[in-house]
Please model this.
Amino acid sequence: MSVGILLGFLGCLSTVLSDTPAEVGVASLRAGDLVEFPNQPRRIRDLIESALALTERKLGYQFGSHSPSQGGMDCSGTVYRVLQDLEIGAPRSSRAMFAWVEEAGNLHRCGPEVQSMDDRRFDSLEPGDLLFWSGTYDTGKGDDAISHVMIYLGTSRKDGKPVIFGASSGRRYRGLRIHGVSVFDFQIPAKGSRSVFVGYGAPPGLR
Model:
């Protein structure tokens, strides 16, 4: 494995690796629990259903994996798997996915000045969009290097809060600390945080 690919995998981690694997703890919901789901195009509904099906499999966070058969996947591997299920030829790493979305003209930039989902820069956010962060882990490529990716699913009918999908070890969903392939809260990093929400955009070929 090349150093570049290895660092790309490391960038998915939201917590420091340890010798003791964390116990799998994931959350799920039904597609019908999302406000926007019934009005989405068939392609977006397929993506959401594929993602939520993975959350039902109790998959852990597995460094370097994009295969459910290994018992877990990392952040970019999880997104890669969902897009592959839709026959979308996505790159494997979070940094390459960011460049892919940007080169297609689909990227909506945010940055450290964005502190709330009420910011107008989120006006174009739609279910199925990829979400990108930097600074969630030391990638060795500088603080502004893309280090994490997830997928926006929509808003919960139950509480009206945004729901995202991916893989992480340490992020939360409605108070539950997650380790694995799951749904998650969408929280913007606090001002002064090392991590930054960089932007979002539709993967080429989805819409």
About this structure: DSSP finds four helices and eight strands in the chain. The two ends are 33 Å apart (CA to CA). Residues 1-11, 13-20 have pLDDT under 50 and may be disordered. The longest strand covers residues 162-173.
